[in-house]
Amino acid sequence: MGATAEELLEFLIDSARYGDTDDVKVAIQEKAAVDGQDSAGRTALHMACANGHVDIVLLLLEAGASPDVKNADGNTPLHWACLNGQTEAVKALLAKGASAAVLNNAGRTPVDEAISRDFTAILETINSCNTGAGIEVEVEEVEPDAAAAGSSAAAAAAADDADMEEDMEQALEEQQQAAAGGGGSSAAAELAASAQKQLNL
């Protein structure tokens, strides 16, 4: 290509970012620095992992790219793969020994990034590998019968409340009629007031 080392690196990183596998192969053949970093500390592997270009991830790893190079924020390619939900890239990195417990500048691991986005598949992938991260994923599932039972119980409770209110209203009406018929009996009036108070609770 006749390009400088800097130009080759830029070409490699851009090709990895946009998923141009053929250009990545050319850059590697031209001896581009596979672990070379741009001004933000990003490598071609960072770009490929973030965007889910697994074929390029594999090419770079086979060419000797390190899975643990950090960018300016302390993020490794695995941080970016986890943050963007790129499960296959995560698998490829872990197979090459990438650490799921390494901290970035914010004190977060790749595992933390996956948890923050609720990427269960990635957590399960990390958990299935012997990475030393100590992650165990538990996915809570609600059985259909249990959900139906809960719904039925709620409906029954609502029906009971409605029946209770109806009974109280009827009792109030009867007590008010009794009070009127009894010449303003104080006992009946007290009963009516009590019923009204309970109804308003």
UniProtKB/TrEMBL annotation:
GO terms for molecular function: ubiquitin-protein transferase activity. InterPro entries: Ankyrin_rpt (IPR002110), Ankyrin_rpt-contain_sf (IPR036770). The keyword Iron-sulfur does not apply. Keywords: ANK repeat, Repeat. PROSITE patterns: ANK_REP_REGION, ANK_REPEAT. Residues 148-159, 186-201 have a biased composition (Low complexity). One of its GO terms (biological process) is protein K6-linked ubiquitination. ANK repeats lie at residues 40-72, 73-105. Residues 148-201 are annotated as: Disordered. It comes from the Eukaryota. SUPFAM superfamilies: Ankyrin repeat. Residues 160-172 have a biased composition (Acidic residues). This is Uncharacterized protein.
